[in-house]
Each structure stands twice: as structure tokens, then as C-alpha cells.
Amino acid sequence: MRHLLSAADLDHDEIVEILDLAEEMAQVLHRPIKKLPALRGRTVVNLFFEDSTRTRSSFEIAGKWLSADVINISAKGSSVSKGESLRDTVLTVAAMGVDALVIRHQASGAPLQASQWIDAHVINAGDGMHEHPTQALLDAFTIRRHLRAETPDVIDFAGRTVAIVGDITHSRVARSNVALLRTLGANVIIVAPPTLLPSGIDSWPVEVSTDLDSVLDRADVIMMLRVQRERMSGGYFPTPREYTVSYGLTRDRLAKLRPGAAICHPGPMNRGLEISADAADAANSLILDQVAAGVAVRMSVLYELLGGADETVPTKEHA
Ligand code: CP
Fold this sequence. Notes:
single chain, alpha/beta, Rossmann fold, five-stranded parallel β-sheet, four-stranded parallel β-sheet, 10 helices, 34% helix, binds phosphoric acid mono(formamide)ester
């Protein structure tokens, strides 16, 4: 793997390899001293043109726990605010001897474009409404762990159903998750108001519903998405109240989920809009597990891209 630009670029075995390695990396979280020497001497730059809490900090922690040197650059506070272009910014950063560039940008396709300008490995940390592949990987890692609590030998999601609910139009998380979950064999149900379903949804390999209540008892996992008000330049429909009534994971709907069904949300959450506090904080909510998985999965991705054969492979024996 040279770059990680899209979840659709990964085949079944590549995904399972990343998840399995992430399981080994996750052992580090339980150690008092978390550093592994695998990426000593490598430099990772987090180049973020959009805000982030989870993705940027977990890439930073992941890189540091693998002993890479990690530099954070955000548009605010960089020469981007003086008008420097994406190309000049990427070439400038690459000229300093970077091994991997983790990039988040408001324009779909920006990481792909960057990968064509420089030799360093490029990781898509979210591009516009296009993709967020490491989010889909960490979601899969979290879901697989949840399933393994009952069925320890689960490898993929054949025969499982995941409902992805909410603002599908603006969601790069939904697009990456559909690709990744389908590759792992899951049935995916997309649930949204008609106004938040993207054009072309008919060609997605999913079932589509506008009726959340009819889906609640069918899903092994219900993944609630953030309503992305900042991307809705043309107004907001349905209204927040209407949205919550029809598409929010309310206390009443929580009670109608299949027993043992897991609740996911990529964050940040609009509590009280797409998800109630009762659901976000429920015993079957995996939302903080998703955050924790972000570090292990990003360690795995960085290692897959940057770890050479002569590097120290972190194994359970090292953990
Ligand atoms: N899920 C996610 O991408 O969160 P951040 O925007 O905080 O990185």
C-alpha cells in the first residue's frame, strides 16, 4: 500500500490485515510506557485545512507511539492564511523531507491531488464530502470487537446489518463506511430524509429507507451521523425539531433497537439533534470505543505505509 486515499481501494484481506495489526497495536494502550521503536527516524506531517479533534490528535498520538517525529500544521496559523495554494503548501512541506503526509481538506480529491505532487505517502484524513477512510477502518475495528465479545472468531461482517442514519449527502464517513462495510460482507441500510440523500444513491450497493422506525429492529449496529449544518449553505430542511422527531435516536427509539445492537457515532455529536444523551451514553454505545480505536487503527495504517521489513514489528510478545 503506497497511499490511503479511499476505503474503496482496500480489498477484504487488506482491511482484515489492518484490523488485525490494529489489535496488536491496541495492546500498547494498556502499557504504562506506550512507545514502540517501529518508525524511529520517520517524519509524519498532519496537514489540516479543516478543524478536527479526534483525527488529528489520534494521528499525532499514533505516530508518537510508533516513535515517528510528528509535526502538526493547520491552515489557521500557517501561510495558507496568507493565500498560499494547496500545491505550494504541499510541495513546501514535502521539501523538508517528510515520509508521510496526513491531509484533511474541504475539497474532495485534495489528498489524491497531493499524492500526485510528492513522493511521500499520503493519507486521507477527510476530504470534503468524499471519503474518510481511517474513520471507516476504526469503525470496523470497533464493530468487530463488539461482535467478538459474543462470537470470538468473527473476521468480517458477513450476515450482519449496519444502518447508517442521517445526513448522508454531506457525509464522507458514510461514503467510506459503505465501501468498507460492503467489502467486509455487511448488509448496509442507509436511512435519511429525502432531502439528505445524495443524488446517485440508487447506484450505491445498499438498501435505502426514509423510515427510521422500520429499521430499528433489523440492525446489528446503528451508526448515527452528524447533521453537518456548516455544509448546508442553502438552508436547513428538515428543521432541527422535525429532524429529531423523525430521524433522531431518541430514548423511545433506543428501546426499540434489537437486543445487543451497538450504537456508533463518528463524532462530534449534536446531542439532542441526531442523538439523545440517553443513546450517546447508553451501555451499548461504542462512541468512546471508536475514539480509542482511532489510535490503534492509525498506528496500524502508519505502520503499513512506513514500516520497513527491517523495522521492529510490534507483536504480542513485545506488548
Ligand atoms: N470523526 C472525526 O473525523 O472527528 P474529528 O473531526 O474531530 O477529527
